[in-house]
Description:
Strand order of the largest sheet: 2-3-4-5-6-7
Distance between the termini: 37 Å
Mean pLDDT: 96
Amino acid sequence: MTERPSDRDLVRLAREGKDLTRAEIVRLLSLPDSDAEAFLYPAADAVRSEAVGDAVHLRGIIEFSNCCERDCLYCGLRRSNARLNRYRMPAEEILAAAGRIRDAGIGTVVLQSGEDSFYSREEICTLVSRIREESGLVVTLSIGEKTPQDYRAYREAGADRYLLKHETSSATLYRLMRPDSAPGGRLSCLRELGRQGYEVGTGNIIGLPGQTPEILADDLLLMKSLDADMLGIGPFLPHPDTPLAVSPPGQMAATLKTLALARLMTRTANIPATTALATLAPDGRPRALRAGANVVMPDFTPMAYRRRYEIYPGRNLSADPMDFLKRLHDEIVKLGRTVGTGPGSRKK
């Protein structure tokens, strides 16, 4: 009978490339925090360094619409939130913000919105093509579930990447959290995006009410099976104008353990230190960068709109992007890392 490896040995084997079983992932998600700090996060950081290098790649976000047709229980943009002051940025303001991203030396723009069908396929394509022509930026879209025809048109217009978090792999939890969405819809979209040649991003939310370590293990196995190029893993943060207002937030340790295991399991995926982690705790971003993350996404949404893009409360809404970038540069250098240049595509 083969003796079960210790937790430390199991992490070592994962670092060396062992495929983890569901039971092993659950076991590592349940590590005492002190053990995670002692050998899980350093192992993930080592794999990050070996697989993708020491550069921290930057993506400039423009949150161009806070209108959303979905009614997700966890999100402040949900259509039932009548207290939210809605907006849609004019195209020229979006293009001006993209120019500021280019001028800051960042190679990628992320155009993000609620699921807002106000924008026609043609309008999104025109926006993408103008950004490519006027700024030369790599364009990432994060605008929700669309048709294969939409995705094809966006791709032909010049979109390179698409972010669509699966949120949770549990069909039961998905139906509960997203009552007007089909559990299989996002997975179908993610697979279609991959077929059309996008760099595809997905991810989950840590700490949703009803979530279990087994569900998180399934999330990680799903991310691996999709061979996603980018993984957004962030904590649940309750919004006061949603049905989950009094639910506890996701935990920092659970989020970092999931992120670290994602690095060990996928090796070369781009993994951001999310804004939600930095909102949960002041040291959230550097802790994530030490646990396997290699991307940061500065917000270039004009201030008049940024405070209204309230998926969750508590974001730092006072920082000018250039001031933030200076502090971020110092933080990255202090970690012994460098600021990435160019588009920072995944190295498969």
